[in-house]
Amino acid sequence: MSFFKTLDVNEDNDKKAGELETAENVKCLIIGSGPAGYTAAIYAARANLNPVIIQGMEAGGQLTTTTEVENFPGYPEGVTGPVMMEDLKAQAERFGTDVRWGEVTSVDFSKRPFNVIVDNKKPFLAESVIIATGATAKYLGLESETKFKGAGVSACATCDGFFYKGLNVAVVGGGDTAAEEASYLASLAKQVYLIVRKPYMRASKAMIKRVENTPNIEVLYEHNTKEVTGTNVVTGATLVKRMGEADEQEVKIKIDGFFAAIGHKPNSDLFKEYIDTDEIGYIKTIPGTSKTNVAGVFAAGDIQDSIYRQAVTAAGSGCMAALDAEKFLAEQE
User: Cα separation of 173 and 152, whole Å?
Assistant: First the structure.
């Protein structure tokens, strides 16, 4: 039975009284508030779709944990991530977007209007939905990683690599992502340490060859990161090198930046009952569009982008989602 069965035209009102608030009808509900969500809201609001954004647990998305952003158009002097997100939010609100605090806790996309519940108590009946919940970077889980996020610890070389030009950095991971990050950073940094916990890399042969042929990349096989060190910013890392079945040796390296490249987890679990995803969890969209397998539900930003994962590409896909939603709703009239 659908969780939302009792929401249908006042059925079983007595049972639900006191449990759920009155359902609110919206034309366009946007779930997520990063560059994709806010851009979708700007376009949807200008198209008179009266969008409502549910910001989620991390209002503004991953960029709120970033310090300087220098590669987003329109900010010639750079901008901090939180300030940029506030700018996008203000622009969305200027055109009438209703920005709400809260977390979507359950959805039913089996029929329109779509049933979406926020904070387990507030139901929305949405004629269209744009999913922009992003993907969460995976970290090692070290306390020191959390301490230095935005102060030397990053999960995006393309975003933050420029700040380490001529400096020493470390990348942790053994797959294609780690190899690509290390190769990119090698074009900027003085020295790149690639920390691989196994005696081999899982990356493709082509990427391994690229890494091996880059003189300022040193691969540290069978090393695990014990701690990222520093005072106010990262200045080093303590590693543990496996010497044999039972022997280990502590190794210290001097670095200015530490990059986690062990993958991302798309924030799509809530939607998988209805929305098609790939084996990792990225939402599948019809190529060249933001359309999912459910008519009227669209996806934008990192939730459907496993390749680029940039603020500017997320914003562009948010625009696409709003335009697709506008066209869809027009066709329903």
Answer: 17
**What residues does each domain of the chain span?**
5-136+265-332, 139-260
pTM comes to: 0.75
Annotation marks residue 156 as catalytic: yes
pLDDT digits (tens, 9 = 90+) for 290-308: 999 999 999 999 999 988 8
Of 198, 256, 195, which Cα lies nearest the Cα of 226? 195
Which of 108, 156, 256, 302 is labelled catalytic? Answer: 156
Q: Clarify whether 12 is annotated catalytic.
A: no
pLDDT at 94: 96
Q: Are 306 and 323 in contact (CB under 8 A)?
A: no
Whether residue 28 lies in the annotated active site: no
Fold adopted by 5-136+265-332: FAD/NAD(P)-binding domain (3.50.50)
Contacts 24+ apart (CB under 8 A), 250-254: 250/226, 251/220, 251/223, 253/168, 253/170, 253/193, 254/168
Q: How confident is the model at residue 13 (pLDDT cuts 50, 70, 90)?
A: very low
Active-site residue (options: 28, 108, 160, 305): 160
CATH fold of 139-260 reads FAD/NAD(P)-binding domain (3.50.50)
Give, as one character, the DSSP assignment of residue 180: H
Task: Choose the catalytic residue: 108, 159, 256, 305.
Answer: 159
Q: Given CA atoms 163, 166, 167, 173 in this order, what sign does their dihedral have?
A: positive
Question: What are 26-71's pLDDT values in tens digits?
Answer: 999 999 989 999 999 999 999 999 999 999 877 666 666 666 788 8
Element (H, E) at 183: helix 176-186
In CATH terms, are 5-136+265-332 and 139-260 the same topology? yes
